[in-house]
Structure formats: C-alpha cells, structure tokens
Amino acid sequence: MKHNPADQLIRDRLEPGSLSIEGFLGTDDRPIADIIAADIGEVEAAGYTAEQLGDFLEHLHVTGDGGWEGRVPMYDGKISVRSDETLGQIPCPFACGDACHKSIITVKDASGETLLVFTPLDAHLISAHGFFEGKGSAYRIEPKKLISLFRRCTSI
User: Fold this and answer.
1) Which end of the chain, C or N, has fewer beta carbons within 10 A?
2) Cα torsion angle, 123, 128, 129, 130, sign
3) Residues whose CB falls within 8 Å of the CB of residue 21, separated by 6 or more in sequence, listed in order
4) Distances (CA, A) of 23 to 45, 101, 152
5) Which DSSP state fits 149?
C-alpha cells in the first residue's frame, strides 16, 4: 500500500505531546484506519452508528454544561452528568477545522457509580471521525460501554 503523507500527519497529531500530553493512541500501535474500522464494526454490529453515539455524548456534554459544575439528572434520574470546565480549546487531531473547549464530563448512575468519563473532543471524534481513541488511551471509550449507556438511557 502506498504511504499517504496525510495519514502520517494525523498519526503525528494523535501522538503524545502534539496536541495533548498523553496523546490519543495509548498503547495502540495499529494503523489509525484499523483502529477506526474495528470500533465502527463493533458499533454497526450492535445496530448503531458512530454519529448516533457521538451525538448522544454531545447531548450529555451540553446538558452537563448547563449545570454550572453541578450534577444534572437526566433520563428520569437514570443518570446524572457533571461538566468540569477548564480554559481553552483543543483542535481536532484530524485537522478538520473543528476545535472543542476543554472540559471533563462525568456520567454517574443513580447510586453514584461512575459510568463514563469523556471530553467534548471525544464526542466530536466519535461523531465526525468514528475514532474512539486507541487502546490504553486515558479517554478511550470502549464502544460496548458507550452502547450499553446509550441503551440504558434511551430504552423506554
């Protein structure tokens, strides 16, 4: 396969130290296309799209932002979200032109157990690029875990 310089630029931006101290790949040394294909395969096998799941995360993020760093109950109390803001923005490592504000969103169940921790950039990466981050990455979202949360919140 012919080497694509654009793919190398994306990989460089995903590595530690380029856009974030930890980077987005963790210990995953697979090609970016393989990481994305594996995760998208898992999502599609469950009957969903990455865009649906990324949009769900964005909904959680926006709702959490409205809580002014307090917990906000959602989905009839099944979960609550909290968004803790920091200053600044981070550009998308895929160089699509988007940038997300820096924030950590924590999702807990009714008993207070943490179900998921993510960033606004994660919502964008999943929705726009099908990228859940590499295995071992600090903010990697396992597709099965996100699908389980989505089902829990959207089931009637």
Assistant:
1) C
2) positive
3) none
4) 28, 17, 30
5) H
Cα 3 vs. chain centroid, distance in angstroms? 28
Q: Distance between CA 94 and CA 84 in Å, rounded?
A: 25
Question: Residue 135 corresponds to which amino acid?
Answer: K
Q: Residue 139's CB: how many other CB atoms inside 10 A?
A: 17
Cα angle 28, 32, 33; round to 5: 130
Q: What is the pLDDT along the chain (156 residues), one digit of tens a residue?
A: 455 667 788 888 899 888 888 889 999 999 999 999 999 999 999 999 999 999 999 999 999 988 877 899 999 999 999 999 888 899 999 988 899 999 999 999 999 999 999 999 999 999 999 999 999 999 999 999 999 999 999 885
Upper half-sphere CA count for residue 35 (Cβ side, 13 Å): 25
Q: What is the pTM of this model?
A: 0.91
